[in-house]
Design a protein that fits this description.
This protein is mostly beta strands. The chain has no helices and eleven strands. Strands 2, 4, 5, 6, 9, 10 and 11 form a seven-stranded mixed beta sheet that branches. Strands 1-3-8-7 form a four-stranded antiparallel beta sheet, with no helix packed on it.
Length: 124
Amino acid sequence: QVQLVESGGGLVQAGGSLRLSCAASGRTFSSYAMGWFRQAPGKEREFVARISSTATNTYYADSVKGRLTISRDNAKNTVNLQMNSLKPEDTAVYYCAASRRPGVRTEWTDYDYWGQGTQVTVSS
């Protein structure tokens, strides 16, 4: 089992940056692909980014390509989301999640473990 705890959210002006982190417990972290999702008020949870277990492959939603970067450190059991050039429409609760399933997985149902989320608010 994997437990996930996000941190790094906050309030930032449009055009600014934030770095989200997700700390994982458990010895099997390196065997999971990791993803970030977000959910804005009144909207469904949506895929943001994914990184393979060995960090070889990454995949992004079109809305964040070129602005957000996912990375991981298996030695430290962490996954990060560097967020640059933020827009008001990026405002949401951001969740990290772990998946045993290989390949590109953008559906939240493909992920097995979830953190509690961290709020990101981008003001205009």
